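Aim 2, interim progress. The first record below pairs a target sequence with its structure tokens.
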Amino acid sequence: MVVFVLTISMAGCSGNAGVEYVEKDGRWFYSCDLDKANAPTSNLKLSSIAEKPKVVFFDTSPESIFGFWRCTISDNYIGICPSSGRFKLFDHDGRFLRGIGDVGHGPGEYTKIYEACIDEKNGYVYLGDMGTRKILKYTIDGEFLCVVNVGRPISKCALRCREDGALEVVNMPFGMGDYQFMVAGGMSAPTYYPAKMEVPTRDENGNFIGFNNEIWTYGNSGLMTYKLSCSDTLYAFDSSDGSNYPLVTAQCENKVYFMFNETSKYLFIDTLVDPKVIWRIDRSNGKLAKGEIENDYLYGMSVNNPIIKFRNGWYYDFYDSYDLESELETLEKEGNLGKEELSEVRQLKEKVQASEQGVMLLGKLK
């Protein structure tokens, strides 16, 4: 196999040592050696990535209470995968609409929701159950329809619904007999794609290889993009031709674990050294930089752990009420706000103090 490498200057960017633009099997991706990178430090404004976030206060009725773990977002819905319990569906005003399915071992029930996907256009919700290794399909009104046949048992999965209603699945291998695969199609006759870049989870003695038991999916730029925790690469799966290929890969000395994300404008790399600082590649010119992401909609408040805050084409930031209250108090004490800005922060803090459940900032990506 022939691999072509271009220095980043040939992609329209000079002075970014440590970054190469690499061709493999007709696809191009960024290869980053962060130890050699001379990237400038500059903060990125949230307004350059997302529209102004809405502050979502969630219902506090007994049936709406959840322990936040993951979420999935569509144009009008927020689906909460709790740390345990029932999948809960809210609107963008935080109103509780309904639970989907229930915990158990009967029809339409699950033991632990690992991943979820809302197909708002066609009116479906898909839940990936880690405990029973199956994908469950419901109407958006909560009616259980079927167990989706993907041709192989799933362990931990990433899910994405295409515009045409087809479901895309990437499997994260976990059990001894599992391996990574991709599948897509209408699911009555799914198309199955073995992974070209298999990532084992256990050695020949059955022992786990490092911290390699999670998968993260993003899908902010029109493709199924995902990261396996044991790899140093952000992958994309294109179901139009079944290809599985890298978008960006990274390395640095004494570092074996990275996190990634992507939007239409940037590729993000996090070495997990600082909860606020991440690396970014500008996709328009290939330039590398690092810094914080400032929520300039909230007067420069830093976005904590920004690498996980972009998903399904949205920026979201979920806070325990007390945590957001503390962030707003810090803004007050710093003394950098004008009179009108200070009044707005205090009004928001009062609303947060009155909230008995979590608060989410939610803004559509540009």
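The second target in this work package is listed in the same format:
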Amino acid sequence: MQRKNVIFIADSLDNAHRFQAVLSGLDVDVTAGSLLQFKKLIAENPSYDLVVYEANGEAISSLSAVEQTLVDDGGSALLVIVPEENLGSFRLPVQLNSDFVVHGASSEECSLRIRQLLWPGNESSMNDFVTVDSMTINLATYQVTVAGQPVDFTYLEYALLAFLVTHPGRTYSRDALLRRVWGFDYFGGSRTVDVHVRRVRAKLGPELSQHLETVRGVGYLWSA
């Protein structure tokens, strides 16, 4: 999957934080700035493949100018972040490969829209990433990031986390996890699962670790 260049334009912190987490899990280089810096960033980054543009407030009325700027500059892809209250009057740019997400859309949807614009037709890449809140798991490279920062898991810690996250809402006993994660040739005690769960929780941090629940007398589950 070819690495891409993304320009992210937004003024609101919530979108900045959300998309920082989303983009950190994709094979992209990101240049970010405010709405006022749009033309400056376009001029300074000629090799960009996608612009993610927050059309809040008055910015939505300037979308036609944004579209024309991108067309004049070679016609890269555009993803527009639109407030829900503006959907009735919103018109998607037609001269570009473009799409939109509603302000507050889930990280999973934002990631999907971006991948479709950057790597159209490459559906296999869409299944390589799992995003939960600020965490992104790259199932192809065995990497995990939280809030854009890589987390150093051992292989078994990663394998345990990835298995539970990709099977949400199901409770697995310690013995079942040993069979599914450690393998049938593991002869140690089942309490090693508890040790690895504690380590995974510590590395995820207090907010994300709440998803990894203990089911008393049974085992563990990942709550979506």
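The chain has a mean pLDDT of 86. This observation will shape the mutagenesis plan for the next reporting period.
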